[in-house]
Design brief:
The structure is a single chain. Strands 2-1-3-4-5 form a five-stranded parallel sheet, sandwiched between helices. A five-stranded parallel sheet has the order 7-8-11-6-12. Strands 9-10 form a two-stranded antiparallel ribbon. It is α/β, with parallel strands linked by helices and 462 residues long. The protein is globular. It has three domains: 5-131, 3-Layer(aba) Sandwich (Rossmann fold); 151-314, Rossmann fold (3-Layer(aba) Sandwich), CATH 3.40.50; 318-458, Orthogonal Bundle (Helicase, Ruva Protein, domain 3). The chain has helices spanning 13-23, 35-45, 64-76, 91-99, 112-131, 151-164, 180-189, 208-216, 233-236, 252-264, 290-295, 301-307, 323-339, 348-356, 362-376, 384-387, 403-421, 426-433, 437-446, and strands spanning 5-9, 28-32, 49-52, 81-86, 104-107, 170-173, 198-202, 241-245, 266-267, 276-277, 281-286, 310-313, 345-346, 381-382, 449-452, 455-458.
Length: 462
């Protein structure tokens, strides 16, 4: 393993020599005598540990300089491991330093052996954190920000790649919160229109009296309040893609105008007479059953077949198997980066609760629960209580499966859960499962689970 970098922020020459003698055999040492140099070195070298004196120039007797530097480092490097070593040893300074993110607080003179032991432990923890598995697929298994390894989501990925190379209208169906807009963006980003705009309009969120103007634009004086000409969303999508979310909410009168656009790619602004050619691709989405809406006279059948030349069905989260755990890890990493909180993972109970929950709000619910849990959590691992989920009461989802399928699914599930809990340490995973490491490798191959540096993925669902 390469030697770890340690930054010493200290303006006292004798203390620098003492620390250098104690640590140079085991660590690569960097030194800074003032806050500006310390920030520059920290940004350039990303040291594993920072030893920080609170009394720094230009006011060495004032601990505020060191505390200010501590906060500045933590702003842009939330996982910085900072040990405060200082003459300013009053308890209030220690409390403030720890509250700002310091890992420990030493008063000078520092015991070199005690400091060395603490730094060895910090470096060991850093190594574990760097090696922990994020349970995210390799980039080639992802489509934009969509994550998943289940058969159902892979069918969606395959469909996205196929329709992206065409110009046909696409209708995306699925429950609320399943990722229909992400699917539309993925199609746009993989198409020949990716350099053009991606314009979104929610047909159910705009009052019917304003929706026509929003879609098609209006001329000056077309109605009361129309003091100037305005382009509609369709015109702004020129050369790109327009995403009509909740198209099932579109009023019948506007369905006729949209059908005309799909037929000849021309529009008329409200109050206008000139036909305007618009080169934009239509992608629509809905969570309602359009065939049922057609039966009740709420949606035009001819528009349905026009807008849904290709239909993509985005599955609900409850039908995506182990994807829920993969996505939970991804959302946790994103939430910790945004909040700058040190949350390392999930407890066993939290993993079970995540897998047992039905997720009626789908991906949106999962994302929001984890973001809220990271903000409210007091420990390093999220619990069912942090997620506001009941503890799991046992697995009842296998009742309808054959014995062979159930055994296969349970094995894969247990391996993934153990990998999350033990953060990629295969020796501990093997102990958790009660098997040897060679047998663990056999199971990894059997279930198509690949372990690489800083990564674990499910190649297929078996």
């Amino acid at each position: 393993m390469p030697r770890r970098k340690v930054l010493i922020v200290e303006d006292d020459e004798s203390t620098l020599r003492q620390l250098d003698l104690a640590l140079k055999e085991e660590f690569d040492l960097l030194s800074a005598r003032d806050p500006a140099d310390a920030l520059a070195l920290a940004r350039d070298h990303h040291p594993t540990v920072i030893l920080l004196d609170l009394g720094l120039p230009p006011r060495p007797a004032d601990p505020e300089e060191g505390l200010r530097l501590l906060r500045e480092i933590r702003k842009w490097q939330s996982n910085a491991r900072i040990i405060v070593c200082t003459d300013c040893g009053e308890r209030q300074h220690a409390v403030r330093a720890v509250s700002y993110g310091a890992y420990d607080f030493f008063r000078k003179p520092v015991d070199p052996k005690l400091l060395q032991q603490l730094m060895q432990r910090l470096c060991w923890v850093a190594e574990l954190e760097e090696d922990r598995l994020t349970l995210l697929p390799e980039p080639e298994d992802e489509v934009e920000e969509m994550i998943g390894t289940s058969d159902k989501i892979h069918r969606v990925f395959a469909a996205i790649r196929k329709v992206a190379t065409t110009e046909v209208p696409v209708l995306i169906i699925g429950e609320s919160g399943t990722g229909k807009e992400l699917t539309a963006k993925a199609i746009h980003e993989r198409s020949c229109r990716k350099e053009g705009p991606f314009v979104t309009i929610n047909c159910g969120a705009i009052p019917e009296t304003l929706l026509e103007s929003e879609l098609f634009g209006h001329e000056k004086g077309a109605f009361t309040g129309a003091v100037q000409q305005k382009k509609g969303k369709l015109e702004y999508a020129q050369g790109g893609t327009i995403f009509l979310d909740e198209i099932g909410e579109l009023p019948l009168a506007l369905q006729v105008k949209l059908l005309r656009f799909l037929e000849d790619h021309t529009i008329e602004r409200v109050g206008g007479w000139q036909r305007i050619f618009v080169d934009a691709r239509i992608i629509a989405a809905t969570h309602v059953d359009l065939l049922e809406a057609i039966a009740h006279g709420k949606f035009r059948e001819d528009l349905y077949y026009r807008v849904g030349v290709v239909t993509l069905d985005v599955p609900p989260l409850r039908d995506r198997g182990e994807d829920v755990l993969l996505m939970a890890i991804a959302f946790l990493r994103r939430a910790t980066e945004q909040s700058r909180k040190r949350v390392l993972g999930f407890t066993k109970g939290a993993i079970g609760a995540i897998q047992a929950h039905s997720w009626p709000g789908n991906v949106r619910e999962l994302s929001n629960r984890i973001r809220r849990a990271v903000v409210m959590a007091e420990g390093p691992y999220l619990t069912p209580e942090d997620l506001d989920l009941p503890p799991p009461e046992g697995n009842t989802s296998l009742a309808a499966l054959s014995l062979k399928t159930a055994r296969h699914r349970v094995e894969a599930d247990l391996i993934l859960r153990a990998a999350v809990i033990h953060q990629g340490n295969l020796s501990r995973v093997a102990v958790e499962l009660g098997i040897s490491r060679p047998n663990l490798y056999v199971l990894l191959r059997k279930h198509h689970i690949q372990v690489k540096t800083n990564n674990l993925k499910r190649v297929s669902s078996g």
